[in-house]
Design a protein that fits this description.
The chain contains two helices and no strands. It is mainly alpha-helical.
Length: 68
């Protein structure tokens, strides 16, 4: 989240996060997937919401790909 109050400076990129999610999904042990916080305020509001949507979609797509 570009403008989240607890963002981590120099944290992982979205690509790195989604790659890590995909690795976990491939274990076949995932029973639930949730995003804990999407900050929809602040000056970077659109980027925050877009990031949240990307995390939700990316995680669910990685999970769904196991069914194919």
């Amino acid at each position: 989240m570009p403008d989240h109050g607890t963002k981590e400076p120099n944290g992982p990129s979205m690509e790195q996060v989604l790659d890590a999610v995909a690795v976990v999904m491939r274990t076949g042990k995932v029973k639930a997937y949730a995003i804990v916080s999407i900050y929809a305020g602040g000056p970077a509001r659109a980027g925050n919401v877009t990031s949240g949507i990307e995390l939700i979609q990316g995680g669910l797509m990685a999970w769904r790909s196991l069914e194919e």
